[in-house]
Structures are given as C-alpha cells and as structure tokens.
Design goal:
It comes from Ilyodon furcidens (goldbreast splitfin). Helices cover 33% and strands 19% of the residues. The chain has 16 helices and 30 strands.
Length: 698
Amino acid sequence: MGLISLVGLGGYVNSLKLTLERTYPLTPAGISTESTPVQCTLQGSPLVPAFSKNGDFVIGGVFSIHFKLYTVIYNYTTKPEPSRCTGSVNPRVLRFLHTMIFAIEEINKSTELLPGINLGYQIYDSCVAVPVSVHVAFQLLNGQDPVFSKGDNCSQSGVIAVVGDSGSTPSISISRIFRSFNIPLVSPFATCACLSDKQQHPTFFRTIPSDQYQADGLAKLVKHFGWTWIGAVRSDSDYGNYGMASFLDAALREGICVEYSEAFYRTDPPYKIKRVADVIRRSTAVVVVAFASSGDMKFLLEELAQDPPPPRQWIGSEGWVGDPYLLSFSFCEGTIGVAIQQSVTPGLKEFLLDLSHSEVVASSVLTEFWEDAFNCSLTKNADLTEKFCDGTEDIKKLRSPYTETSQLRINNMVYKSVYAIAHAIHNAVCEEKNGSTHCDKQNILRPKEVLAELKKVNFSKNAYPVSFDVNGDPIAFYELVNWQKSKSGVIELVTVGYYDASMSVGQQFRINGNLTWVEGDTQVPISACSESCPAGTRKVLQKGKPICCYDCIQCPEGEISNITDSPDCFSCPEEFWPNSQRNACFPKPVEFLSINEVLGIILVVCSVGGACLALTSAAVFFHHRTTPIVRANNSELSFLLLFSLTLCFLCSLTFIGAPSEWSCMLRHTAFGITFVLCISCVLGKTIVVLMAFKATIP
C-alpha cells in the first residue's frame, strides 16, 4: 500500500492524510505495472463547514467567525485534537459571510451571469489563527468526499476559488498552499503590501486596496494637520507590522517623528497589553496612529477604558476605524482615519434580517449568535435560570453589528469578490451563441482556468468598478471618516473626505467636511515634541533625541530670523539694522546736520563768515595789487590761496541737510580738491620764501 501524507504545522493537518489503495501489486521500485484507477481515502474526520450548499461549481469561504483559537496543552500520550475556534461569535464577520451567501444566491437567480449554473459554497471558520487557516486550506483542497477516485492520481480539488481570509497573516499561509494547486484566493480583507508580490503569491487577488496606499495616505493626513510628534501602535501580525513599516517610511519622508512604536496581539497575556496601554498613558505625544485589526484593537481599548489616558487624538487604519462595535469607546471621540468606501447593495439588508427560527436552530453558528444576541437559550433542557428562546425574538429590533447596515464597507469588498469569481467562471464556461448565452456545466472546470480569467475581469456592479492590476490589486480609494458625537450622545461614523491614489499628486487628498477632534473640540490639537521657535530665534537639536525635539536660542546680535522654526539666523543687508526682537530688518536711520539746528546755524555762519573774510582779503589784495608789498608777497599764489580758502569754507555747507547720492559724492571730492589746493598754495609760498632767503645773488 502506498501512502502520501500532507502534514502542516505540528500535526494540525494530519487528519487530511490521503491513502492510496490499489488492488494490484507494485514493483519493488513502487511503480505500478497496470493502469487502473486510484482510490483515495481521507484519513480522520474532515472539518465540517459552518455554512455550505451544493452546486455545479463550489466557491470556498474563510472567515474569522470566532475571536480566539482553542488552545490545549498536549501530554504526548494521546492523539492531538484538531484545532478549533472558541469564544463568542463575531456579529460583524457573520454579516460579511452572509453577504457572500447573498451574492451567490443573487448570481444563481441571474439570467445574465452564469445562466443555468448553480454556485455552491463551503464557508469555514478560521478565527484568524494560522493553524486553523492551514487546516481549512487543506480541507478546501481535498473536499468533503471520504472516498474518491480520479484517474491515476489523488488530486482532488474541492473548490475552484476561495474568498477570504479575514486577515493578512492567515491569507499569506493559505495563498502559499494554494499556489501549488493554482487555486485563486480572492480576499476582501487582506491588505498587507507583501501580498502584491506575484513571485510569492501568484494566485492571490484582492478587492481591498494594498496597505502601501493606506500608509501613504495616513502619513499625508498627519502632515496635513501639522502633527510632527506621534505615537504608534500596531497589531503584531503581518497586517500591522508590514503596514506600520510602510507608514513609518512615509512619515520619515514627511518629517514626522515617532515617540514610540509598540506591537500587541489579541492572544498576548494581559500584562503585555497593559504595558502598551501604559506607554500610551505616559507619552507626551497627543496623536496616536494605530495600524491594527479591529479584533486586536478591541483588547487594547478595553484595557485603556479601565484607566482612560489623557486626551489622545487617534488616527486609525481601515482595519478598525470603521468597526461599529468600537464606537462605544467614548474616549476615542474625534478619531479620524481611512475607511473603505461606503456602498449600497440592494436587497442585502432584507436578506440579513430574514433569519427564521428553524434556520437558526439548524446552524450551530447561528444558534450561538442568537443566544448571545437575545440572552436566551435554544436548548429545551436549559438551565432554569436562563431564558428560553421561544421564537418570538425579533431580529429586526436587535441592535447589533450584524444588523447595522448603514455603514456597509467591507461587505462591498466581499460582494465584489464573489462577483469577480463568478465573472471568471462565466468567461471560462459560457459563450455567446445566436444572441444568447450558453453555459456548459458538464465541462470539467479547473481552478487554473478560473485563475487565468480572474486576471482579465473588468466590470462594474452597482456602480462600483471591479478589476485587478498585474499584482492582483484594485484601484486604491479610501474615505476619510471621523468619529463624531450625535445630538443623542451616540458616537457615529461620519465621512469627511477621501483619498484617491489614482489622482495626480496634490489632488489625492481632499477634506470636505467639518471635523470633530478629541473630546469634541473643534480646534485642531497640537502634537509636537517642542513648541515652535518664534521668529528671532533658531532651533538647536536636543542631544540624543529625534529631529523634532529642539531648544529655541535667540539670534546673536546683528542677525535675525524672520520665519517660525528657523534652523539658522542671518545678517541684515548693508543699509539695514535688526530690530530689538531680531525678527526683522529695518533701514538704518538717516542722521544729518540740519540747517534748523543750532550746530547747523553755527556752521553756516562760520562757513559764510570765513568765505566772506577770504573774499574781502582777496578784494583788498586786488585793489593794492600794484603796491610793492603785494607784489613782493607773490600775488598769484596769494589770490589762488584766498580762492581755495573760500571754497574750503563753502564746502562745509555741503554737509548740511539730508544726504543724497550727488551730495555724498560732491562733499568729499570738493573738499579734498580745495583742501589740497589750499595746502599746495601754502607750501608754494613757503618754498618761494625759503628760496629767497637762501639765494646768494639778489
């Protein structure tokens, strides 16, 4: 007997072993000498889907219906139990999977899409745990038949495509298993940018945008409001770690500093989650960016609610900011973040509320949900202290995330995922003949054919386009949402803008609504490591701290800074002085000798008087120019000396009054020339006298 075992993650999938039973002998090398069909038998008990329906083609579904993985300490003396989920049912995820069922039922009724074809489904619970997701992946590969025969091998594909999983980490595990079998995985939840790598995940598609676009949008959002000092928390998963890494890179490019970056996960011990909460409480950063899933964020906010921190402005990723359950945490009022675009799906609300009592009793998951929602028991021999569900419960009056249909976001991603698969199947098995569509449901459809057609789908449903790029990603479009308190005191999710990555730079980010901030304030909160340095000072970085932490030092004398947070000071232009605050330059004051001042009047009198004396002397000399004493005194030099003295006296008048360009040039040159001329005359007369006294011949 030959044996093939598919083993994964420490025995979690050992129930999926396949045994090949042949009725003919094998050669010593193990090679059959006859060509007879191979009979394959599933060893162990297969997983039972939470919801299922037979059809011509079956679509798989993987959702985190429960919150936790049931953990068991093994003693290695008994066979390990199959991994299973525990905890309460997540009503929001229950709405998601019912959206998948609604879409399939809608397609089955359609006369245009897959006419004459009935789609089936098998939906499993993964509780966002990798061991369970791997187990489910192998179960979807093998199908439900305990014994099957397919030619000469044991390759049995139970489904042709799968919708899920509810998180990036389990989706990565499932995708790596499916890639060997060419089974397409279309996720409405997994946003990790790593899943865009087609070398690692060739069969992965998604209808929700990649986190790379979300991280860029969050960084631009923080920069838009002027926050430079933030805290960061994330899920300790592929979604949180990869998403936060992309955000931190984008924040660094925008000049944003991060005080702390903490990771946590829902299954962490309480003291670890408390440590993260204490970091938030003690931090100085007012703004906290949380890149986490709603399931993880629930545990952190519950811990913070026990001792609410100082006012904090939360910035949320799409993984949790749109979860209606988290809106009950009042200290998060004013939260702003990116969310998947709202949608309108005709008929979905009626389908969700159409739950009959018999339908609930027939499903263990719906029974759990019903008993939790209405606080009663469907078991007849229930505890006498517990109320019995008698069928009078009205789900239409129930207030629960399951019945909340005013904010349908992820539901549209699930809806589009199912329709994308349906269009791929339609293109693979249907063709147009004589104006009508003919679909061959007898044709053996392989997942590889659906995979090839998925790459080419391009359609619109309810005005929402559906297509995939070469990486299996859709066009990135987010709504900006704000947690605002209504008049009734209930926090509501309000759309205040959008982020469209397909637009050009500068046009991607738009805010067109009034925002409410932390504690209902209407003023944008300030979150900075250091207060802004006013004009007149410069920044000096604090040693050992990020660039956003600095001290403000006043500019040195003679220098200014005229902008806020200036890194340097600079000198004023030549004809300017800095003011006393050292934040502006003003023209140097023009100081001059006015004719109206006493000193000016004295200078004018002396100048004019001196000139008059020189002119009077010149006149006397001219009148007696023929006399011997004048002639002996060298009359030419005397007249020139008196003329230069007159000009020297008059040159002082150019220094009176407001200076101008011409007066400034004239006053110095004129005085220099006349003064040199005067001195030259004096020296000339001195040389003449000296020569006269030294002459030997008269």
